[in-house]
Specification:
Blueprint (H helix, E strand, L loop, with lengths): L1 H26 L11 H11 L6 E5 L4 E3 L4 E5 H4 L4 H18 L3 H30 L6 H43 L5 H34 L1
Parallel strand pairs: 1-3
Antiparallel strand pairs: 2-3
């Protein structure tokens, strides 16, 4: 019974923020012709304003992100092309990452290194597990079993580290850069700023949920 309760609580913690952020973004995703521009136009304006003309802005079919390798702010079509509060919040947030990159913001640089290391560990661990599965009967060897367990634990720890490394970087992009810029320079009215703050807060909780999900997955494996 206790484990059932813990499982329900874990599900709420992990999936609740994702459902909430979808609700919040949809709630503030209505077209607003009174807004000064689309998400893509705001991103371009802010980048030019902070002398980041070399950073591009592009619509994408993938997730919203700032690509440090190509130095491009990528926005979903509904955020790049539409005038909505959600589009404004997302665009300002991704520009925040570009500003971090330009400023050599330490957590941003550390995150990049940790994510690369996690990807290497994940690739090597997956390759090792695949090799062990091909060995077949040899996997029954205690040494092989231990090797497989170590590989999975290291992969889990790497994923947790990458998720945790996201938190300070994402928080600063939203509340240390995007929101102060929109507030200080009066891009939006007070009511719209409240809505932007809500969107940014909801998005931030998804990163916390991702980190918790990785911790829970690792704990479940260790328990087994």
């Amino acid at each position: 019974m206790v484990w059932l309760i813990l499982a329900v609580l874990a599900s709420v913690v992990v999936f609740g923020p994702s459902l909430w952020v979808r609700h919040v973004m949809a709630r503030h995703g209505d077209h607003r012709p009174d807004l000064p521009g689309t998400g893509g136009e705001l991103a371009r304006h802010l980048l030019d304003r902070f002398n980041l003309e070399s950073v591009g802005v592009a619509a994408t079919d993938g997730p919203d992100c700032y690509d440090p390798a190509s130095r491009i702010v990528r926005l979903k079509h509904e955020h790049h092309d539409r005038r909505t509060i959600t589009a404004i919040a997302v665009a300002a947030h991704e520009v925040g990452h570009a500003l971090q990159h330009a400023d050599n913001y330490p957590p941003f640089l550390r995150r990049a290194g940790i994510v690369r290391s996690a990807q290497i560990v994940d690739t090597l661990g997956s390759g090792l597990l695949f090799t062990l599965s091909l060995v077949g009967g040899a996997v029954s060897s205690p040494r092989m079993i231990v090797l497989g367990v170590v590989a999975v634990v290291l992969m889990g720890l790497a994923r947790v580290a990458a998720s945790v490394a996201n938190l300070p970087t994402e928080h600063d992009a939203s509340f240390g850069r995007a929101l102060p810029i929109l507030t200080r320079d009066a891009y939006l009215g007070s009511e719209d700023l409240k809505a932007v703050r809500m969107v940014l807060r909801a998005a931030a909780y998804t990163y916390v949920a991702q980190a918790l999900a990785q911790l829970i997955n690792l704990f479940r494996f260790l328990r087994r």
